[in-house]
Design goal:
The chain is α/β, with parallel strands linked by helices. The chain has 17 helices and 22 strands.
Length: 570
């Protein structure tokens, strides 16, 4: 039997991750935060790589190649923010690639395209000098304006063409790092990036640059036209962030109570920022496509997680096929590294991908039973279902009656969204369910919305555009006749961040929604990530049970085991 070719891809920036490719297909992948239990954890990659090797049942000596990427660094094989797993393995080849190339290959590798344009937009990529050190053959493709600049420049948007298994850069834009000259607004990365702008506004409103996802949820509560100035401009094909707008924002939040006291003001700022980002994204991408036309487009980089901007982009390009990378942030770098190794370094053909983005290891029944039946969980009620249809029927009945269900199935999702493997599920229409979950289960701000998971063939019934959105990174509008039935998954402006569910790689979840439809007449479930505020999504059965016990969740389903509390605590 021919020996498999294994490639490790590893991202060592914030939101670190590791991916194991087997003969050109992802066999296992995990984000480091799921294992360390520290949000956005990165740096040393030993923990994530060990997980991948153990899940596949191989050793490091079985790996043919390692491809790595880390912003501002070319990690040493022996140590990087701690001892690395490669420190005692000298025979394995390790190569390093730049930030935006990793982002680009992460989209290309799992996209449906054999040929496409690729755009990467984020807050800060590799410094120009590091990019050229890693890819010296690209010097001739860099504008002399950037080459002659004496200050450090970093990638902010890059445009490529993928054809015949080759990724060719067509346009790369770089920016200086921000000089902290404003007392209230700090661009935390490059001075002229869309991602940096959005992070700066996030910090202004929430005090944390990692809360950019909250900003998109806050924006619909704000009013348009409260601020009549622009944040961005194009000059000589390059996008710039203006300075003047910063002088209008002199009241950064001083904490959650202050934020709530001035909620309408911060909502208006979020609305303005969101609209600025939408215009900038559409302008940038349309500008690049006008110069380098292609009907297929892959989109990656942290800015590609903005579901509202994504939907407007899709609407603006009705004749294009757009693939939005589900793990578009830095957690996706490891995917790009692995596919770079397969396609570019080993010169192997890009293989078809089935659309699945759930790459975690599956926990066997013995592991589940050991945790479920441990002494610390003796007060929980447990029942094992040997008939899957009976399990699904029981859960559908409970959901229809207003119970919340934590749904833990198979290998975990890769990326920021729970898609039915590590999910909290509930009825989309029962009054006050959204507030109950926010207050008593997620322990988070009550303005944050939840997503509707809808059967793929029913999306047009409930939503105006009816987008196919399997990764929950596009928004739609709930049809007016269903706003009451979908009150818990429809935002204040009528929008919904939809997940369309099919049975190809999400069979059990699809069956559950279909069964719920029989009882409720609604082919939609509320779906949110199985975690609480400040916590990574649960990875293991132990973590699932511990979170279940400390929250108001009613039912926990781990594979075919149903767990309930003896008495209602909340």
């Amino acid at each position: 039997m021919k020996k498999p070719i294994y490639i490790i891809g590893t991202g060592l920036s914030h939101n670190g991750s590791a991916v194991l490719l087997k003969d050109g297909h992802i066999c296992v992948a995990v984000e480091k935060e799921r294992l360390s239990r520290i949000k956005h954890d990165g740096g040393n990659d030993t923990l994530a790589i060990q997980y991948c090797l153990e899940a596949e049942g191989i050793e490091l000596k079985d790996v043919s190649l390692v491809v790595q990427s880390a912003n501002f660094d070319i990690p040493n094989r022996e140590r990087f923010k701690g001892k690395r797993i490669f420190s005692e393995e000298n025979n394995i080849k390790i190569i390093t690639i730049s930030h935006h190339i990793a982002h680009a290959y992460s989209a290309v590798g799992i996209s449906p395209f054999s040929e496409c344009a690729v755009i990467v937009i984020d807050g800060c990529g590799s410094p120009l000098n590091q990019y050229l050190e890693l890819h010296p053959d690209q010097l001739s493709n860099i504008d002399s304006i950037f080459i002659n600049e004496t200050q450090m420049l970093c990638e902010k948007d890059s445009f490529y063409h993928f054809y015949d298994n080759k990724l060719n850069p067509l346009f790369k834009d770089f920016s200086k790092m921000e000089e902290l000259t404003n007392e209230y607004i700090e661009m935390p990365t490059t001075k002229h990036s869309i991602g940096g702008f959005y992070a700066a506004i996030s910090k202004y409103i929430f005090g944390d640059i990692e809360d950019v996802g909250k900003l998109m949820g806050l924006a619909p509560y704000g009013k348009s036209n409260k601020f009549n100035f622009e944040a961005f401009e194009f000059v000589s094909e390059c996008l710039f962030v203006k300075d003047e707008w910063k002088n209008n924002f002199t009241n950064p939040s001083k904490g959650y109570d202050y934020f709530m006291e001035h909620f309408s003001y911060y909502a208006d700022v979020a609305k303005w920022a969101q609209e600025q980002v939408e215009k900038a994204v559409l302008s940038c991408i349309n500008f690049r496509l006008k110069k380098f036309p292609h009907k297929n487009l892959c989109y990656s980089g942290g800015v590609a997680l903005n579901a509202v901007a994504n939907s407007k982009l899709q609407d603006s390009l009705p004749n294009h096929n757009i693939f939005f990378e589900p793990a578009a942030g830095d957690n996706g770098l490891a995917i790009g590294c692995a596919f770079y190794g397969w396609i570019s370094y080993l010169k192997m053909p890009k293989l078809p991908h089935d659309g699945n983005t759930c790459f975690g290891r599956k926990y066997i029944q013995e592991e589940i039973d050991e945790v479920v039946n441990s002494e610390r969980n003796k007060d929980l009620k447990k029942k094992m279902y040997f008939n899957e249809q009976e399990l699904i029927k029981y859960c559908a009945e409970k959901l229809n009656s207003g119970k919340t269900v934590a749904w833990f199935q198979s290998g975990c999702e890769f990326g920021p969204r729970s898609l039915g493997r590590r999910s909290i599920l509930a009825h989309p229409g029962i009054e006050n369910m959204k507030n109950h979950i926010n207050n008593n289960i997620k322990f988070r701000e009550d303005f944050r919305p939840f997503a509707p998971a809808v059967l793929n063939d029913k999306v047009n019934d409930y939503f105006e555009v009816g987008r196919e959105s399997p990764y929950m990174i596009l928004v739609d509008k709930t049809r007016s006749k269903y706003t009451k039935q979908l009150v818990n998954v429809t935002h204040c402006d009528g929008s919904a961040r939809v997940q369309t569910v099919n049975d190809k790689w999400n069979s059990k979840f699809s069956k559950l929604i279909a069964e719920f439809y029989k009882y409720s007449g609604i082919a939609v479930l509320l779906n949110t990530s199985f975690n609480k505020k400040g916590m990574p999504i649960v990875e293991t059965p132990f973590e699932a049970i511990e979170l279940f016990k400390e929250t108001a969740l009613d039912i926990l389903v781990i594979e075919n085991t149903v767990i309930e509390k003896q008495t209602t605590v909340f």
